[in-house]
Design a protein that fits this description.
319 residues, mainly alpha, Tyrosyl-Transfer RNA Synthetase, two-stranded parallel sheet, 57% helix, elongated
């Protein structure tokens, strides 16, 4: 994850919950991608250091265990930069220009300068991040599958030129429930429509009260369609089946209003999040321990990266 701001519910539902489950079955590596943050936020790096610490606190609060997973900071392992450089020498330009997210963000992100090599070449750095640990699987949503395929192509090209060093990692597709932002768009801090993991229960309740609902339901007595309502997306995750069934029925018949529906949802949301929020407050008061966890993760990642780079240099006859 890139340390470009506070983590929110979308990160928990879209990634962290799955990571916590996967660490029970895989030897996992998770890193704070501060070099990747520079691809779009290079002009102001003043908050990256703070965001790195806050991100690690969020990870631990969500359940990532430094005894089961390697948790580290990308820039603390300079081998990532070396492998990125070597991969950039063998990666055709056309491979990068066809990456879907490159085209999409160049067309849609108008408030940042993306006309730099770092942004065009970030999939090469991403390939180095993955192949550095000779990963067999990468947990992603469907929109990230092209990145894993590009990683496979880069690794395949390296192996064809210099001999077998890297495996071909598979995309470990993970189902991601839809969790829209407060205004119905994708949840994002930059949109100001997020519920942050650092929000208090009072703030969460206040934010939920502002949520957009079914746009066709303009008055209290108008029937609604829960499937078109962002609030109901949250009910599917954070409310009991009985509450979901009641909301679905009563919304369609105008038996309840949006205010009551939101209150039921926010009560369930806060109840489900309370253990995470409590753990986060606890970890936030243990900054020295957080630093030690990061240092230990950096050391373990660097050891693995050193072994990989030794194999890479030998294969390229650059020892």
């Amino acid at each position: 994850m890139r340390p470009t701001g506070k983590l929110h519910l979308g990160h928990v539902v879209g990634a962290l919950k799955n990571w916590v489950e996967l660490q029970e079955r895989y030897r996992s590596f998770h890193f704070i991608a501060d070099w990747h943050a520079l691809t779009s936020d290079f002009a102001d790096t003043s908050e990256i250091d703070q965001f790195r610490t806050e991100m690690m606190i969020d990870w631990l609060a969500a359940g990532l265990d430094p005894q089961k997973s390697v948790l580290f900071v990308q820039s603390a392992v300079p081998e990532h930069a070396e492998l990125h450089l070597l991969f950039s020498m063998i990666t055709p330009l056309g491979w990068l220009e066809r990456v879907p997210t490159y085209k999409e963000q160049r067309d849609n992100v108008i408030d940042k300068d993306l006309g730099n090599y770092g942004f065009l070449g970030y999939p090469v750095l991403q390939a180095a991040d993955i192949l550095m640990y000779r990963a067999d699987a990468v947990p992603v949503g469907e929109d990230q599958v092209p990145h894993v395929e590009l990683t496979r192509e880069i690794g395949r090209r390296f192996n064809s030129l210099y001999g077998q060093v890297f495996p071909e990692p598979q995309a470990l597709l993970t189902p991601v429930p839809r969790l829209p932002g407060l205004d119905g768009r994708k949840m994002s801090k930059s949109y100001g429509n997020d519920i942050s993991l650092s929000d208090s229960p009072e703030t969460i309740h206040a934010k939920v009260r502002t949520m957009m609902t079914d746009p066709a339901r303009k008055r209290r007595h108008d029937p609604g369609n829960p499937e078109l309502c962002p609030v109901f997306s949250y009910h599917k995750i954070y409310s009991s089946r009985e509450t979901q069934a009641t909301v679905d029925r009563e919304c369609r018949t105008a038996g309840i209003g949006c205010v009551e529906c939101k209150k039921w949802m926010s009560d369930g949301l806060v109840r489900e999040l309370s253990p995470l929020l409590e753990r986060r407050r606890d970890y936030a008061g243990r900054r020295q321990e957080i630093g030690e966890i990061i240092e230990d993760g950096n050391r373990r990642a660097a050891q693995e990266a050193g072994e990989t780079m030794q194999a890479v240099r030998q294969a390229m006859k650059m020892t």
